[in-house]
Fold this protein.
Amino acid sequence: MRKIRRGDEVEVISGRNKGQRGTVRINMIDEDKVVVEGVNIVIKHIKRGRARQAGRIEVEAPLPVGKVKLVCPSCGTPTRVGVHAGADGKNVRYCKSCEKDIPRPEA
């Protein structure tokens, strides 16, 4: 089970974007990276194509999963995530700070 999923709110814990919060847009499981909305903005230079002009555009670059922490919806703090069996026998994520279950994201 993945501890960080698409739609979760996360906070960056290290690097030049430390302290910024955003929602996970893309979860790149094979590369162990996530793309967070509004975080880690880089400038990409693009060539002129048939339907687009040349220029510089700002895009969100992927971050390693180890550089982000899930923000607990109940206590509102960045926290580590644990996994345990729920009442129905399926795995459920929980906050290691307040011990409450984390619901599935709506996205």
